[in-house]
Amino acid sequence: MTLDAEAAHRGHGGHGYGHGQDARKKSTASIVAEKVVVVAGEGGVEHPTSYCQTLIHLVKGSVGSGMFAMGDAFRNAGLVASFVLTLFIGTVCVYAQHQLINASNVVSRRRGLGRLPDYADTVEHTFRAGPGLFPRLATPARVLANVFLVMTQLGFCCVYFVFISSNVKQVLDDHIVPIDVHVYMAMALVPILLLTLVRSLKFLAPVSLVSTVIMCAGIAVTLYECTKDGLPPLSERRLLAEWHRWPLFFGTVVYSFESVGIIMQLKNEMGNPRDFSRPLGVMNVGSVVIGVLLVSVGSVGYLKFGDDVQGSLTLNLDQKSVECQVLRIGLCLGILGTFPLQAYVPVDIMRGALQSRLGKTRLSPARAELCLRALIVLLTFLLAEAIPNLGLFISLVGALSSSSLAFLFPPLLDWASRWRQPGGVGALRHATNALILLMGVLVTGWGTYAALVDITSALSAG
What we know:
It contains 18 helices and no strands. Helix 6 (79-110) packs antiparallel against helix 14 and helix 6 packs across helix 17. The chain has helices spanning 3-9, 21-25, 28-35, 51-62, 70-77, 79-110, 119-128, 138-172, 181-196, 201-227, 246-257, 260-268, 274-277, 282-305, 322-355, 365-384, 390-418, 427-461. Helices cover 71% and strands 0% of the residues.
């Protein structure tokens, strides 16, 4: 999809995120009519993705560094508690994502769009049409949603730098003179930058396919390496950990499971968007696959290594084994291919503000976007240099921004979008929304506090 077409279909009111009331008055429908040329598929995108391609993107967006942090997550909650809570959190995440999609559909119908608005547009326009205080909070909620989206996706990208450099260092230190981990981060910068400059999800699909195959194979090999010599008995592991460690568990699981930052873009890029959220659609099928993988890696990792399990399970494997060294390098390549997908959302958000300023420069929209993508890569690289602990940073990102997007906004959107419908909001839905909202407040507040305390302790000790 071209830059102009992508900017048009997102419904940013012409120039993105709140750059004047005149821009807001111009309807997104008229912008779409003026700029978007329907080339293929129902979605009207230039390079539509198929069911399988979208499923690959969705699974690939979750099968990353967080997957290999699940052993550390299970350590923080205990074996049995982690198993039950992971399935529960996954179910709530999927339910909340359906709430988000439904609210976005309502906004799309009301505004006469042919596509779903993005996350921030959905928040703003749903709140604006809601009851009570909702309209007053529409603009701040939009800004907050964008901030959390950017934080979440950039947090993913930062962790990828740490994951790649840590694993490559562990392999190459056995064959060459030991080099500082930050040098390996710098070495990963060039290939990551080149991949991130690819602007279309359609063209990234082959990269995602290869990355997904590598990551799934890597998970299978990791599980084999952990189980080939047998696992300790359950009696040697905590079934229920101390309650004050649970917030770190919640943060890691939400980080690993949550794909709310990319689902709107993925659905909009499909040739047949209805295939995304139907009962056996991309979202449900992909979530089941992701949930099974999370539980498998977490339970086996904690069973095998107990309290010694690290923020990435690969770091626990035999450093001298050729198979494990090949595994680490392969997983690094898989993570490398995931980076552009995670960077897609912050580029999408920041591009709106960037376009409003292009009139003051001689820079073309395409070149401006390429510069923006390069700046995002450099920013995440610099932030990654300051991360003291991979596992704790994953917990912080998951608790602060991912939990807010997953559990705080969707129930509010559901309330605001349904209040005008015949029959209003039923008691059961009220109770469900309240439960999800309460869960979001607890996970976000408690998890962020616990992660910050542990990160501060790590910095003081280091």
